[in-house]
Write a structure and sequence with these properties.
By secondary structure, the chain is of the alpha/beta class. It has six helices and five strands; from the N terminus they run E-H-E-H-E-H-E-H-E-H-H. The structure holds adenosine-5'-diphosphate (ADP). Adenosine-5'-diphosphate (ADP) is lined by residues 8-10, 14, 16-17, 20, 88-89, 91, 95, 120, 124, 127-129. The site of adenosine-5'-diphosphate (ADP) has 16 residues, from helix 1 and strand 4.
Length: 162
């Protein structure tokens, strides 16, 4: 059984993330989407538990996907869960440098692990969790950008804040 890990902040999950998760689920027997705590990124809008819950609801119709959270080295998580690959979405050249560095670090900690890059769907090329939060904070409709299952969660949280 080939297992892949899709790590990210998912703060919140977007349709761009779902597109990558679905395509990964078509290539592997099982996909573990891991909500990773990222020390470099600014404070998150949603707690890790909330992000996990939103991912569970947004991927309920994909049978071979499970959701987890982890705050350690993703290469070690992959080894502990018998994953053969980390799958990341690439939107633009600007994603590449960071992702390439991450891939090399992960290889160092787990030489058997491959990093697979999936090109973003042209429709979601511009989409990021932070863009969604900005648009929502400006009171614009975000239903085009996030799964309908979590749209209300984002509107509620951002409206509470702004
Ligand atoms: P973000 O950059 O939106 O905060 P994450 O840190 O949660 O996203 O990213 C997790 C993974 O999903 C990364 O590999 C990132 O490149 C990828 N990703 C994020 N948004 C998109 C998108 N719109 N299309 C394709 N891949 C994406």
């Amino acid at each position: 059984m080939k297992i892949a890990v899709c790590p990210g902040s998912f703060d919140p999950v977007t349709k761009g993330h779902i597109d990558i998760i679905k395509r990964t689920a078509n290539m592997f027997d099982r996909v573990i989407v891991v909500v990773a705590h990222n020390l470099v990124k600014p404070a998150s809008c949603f707690t890790a538990a909330e992000r996990v819950d939103m991912l569970i609801r947004s991927t309920a119709n994909i049978p071979n996907v499970v959701i987890d959270m982890y705050d350690g080295l993703i290469a070690e998580y992959a080894r502990d869960h018998d994953a053969v690959a980390i799958v990341k979405g690439l939107r633009a050249v600007s994603d590449f440098e960071y992702e390439f560095q991450q891939a090399l670090i992960n290889k160092k900690f787990n030489p058997e692990l491959e990093t697979v890059f999936v090109t973003a769907n042209a429709e979601y090329m511009f989409l990021s969790s932070s863009i969604v939060k900005q648009i929502c904070a400006l009171n614009r409709d975000i239903s085009e950008f996030v799964p309908e299952e979590i749209c209300g969660d984002v509107v509620k949280r951002i409206n509470c804040k702004f």
